[in-house]
Design goal:
single chain; about 200 residues; mainly alpha; 10 helices
Length: about 200
């Protein structure tokens, strides 16, 4: 509807395709249908995997298990046997994972699905999401490269920098006429650099 991002609709010149055209069409629809459309628009424009999403998710305490379940699309995208083995350990047990560590990815996926569905004699595992979708996110291996984990690190770095900044009710030491406080003996003040966010996120 929006072309995959929020800017596409705004950039459209034809009122029948741009935001104005969409708005006029929405006025003629029942509220229930408008709500369905809004859900699609939110899905298209959400900055998934960004530091902003990680910051908001942590602040409001999002529980992804309440609104997401593993489906065929999820299983088709997970192909790494090491990751799948760790997921088997998570939804089944370390014993099951160890016994099947040499199995093909297809077999490992079948074990996970059986546990999530509670089928084929497997104990059902409810309220499960992969680690990288949780708040806070985590990885299954030490290889790195997990986007949500990197985004979370950036969000935490920004939060730490904000915590160190003077509050609204505190004097700004960089303001004109401000008096710089001398460090207390035995309590050195660490240097503060512009690249601190990148360092903390690394």
């Amino acid at each position: 509807m929006t072309g995959g991002n929020g800017d596409a609709a705004w950039e459209a010149r034809d009122s029948q395709q741009g935001v104005v055209g969409i708005f006029q069409r929405l006025l003629d629809l029942p509220d229930a249908v408008v709500m369905e459309v809004i859900a699609i628009v939110m899905g298209e424009t959400l900055a998934s995997g960004s530091a902003a999403v990680e910051a908001v998710g942590m602040e409001i305490g999002v529980d992804m298990a309440r609104c997401w379940q593993a489906d065929d699309a999820f299983f088709s995208l997970v192909r790494d046997r090491e990751v799948l083995t760790r997921i088997v350990a998570e939804v089944a047990s370390e014993t099951v994972a160890s016994a099947n560590r040499q199995e093909k990815a297809k077999t490992l996926k079948r074990i996970v699905r059986d546990h999530l569905d509670g089928t084929n004699g497997r104990d059902r595992r409810e309220n499960w999401v992969p680690r990288w979708m949780a708040f806070p996110p985590a990885a299954y291996t030490a290889r790195g490269g997990v986007g949500t984990v990197a985004a979370h690190a950036k969000a935490q770095a920004a939060r730490e920098i904000e915590r160190r900044l003077p509050g609204d009710d505190e004097p700004d030491p960089t303001a004109p006429g401000a008096v710089m406080a001398l460090p207390v003996e035995g309590c050195p003040v660490p240097p503060f650099h512009d690249d601190e966010a990148d360092r903390l996120a690394a």
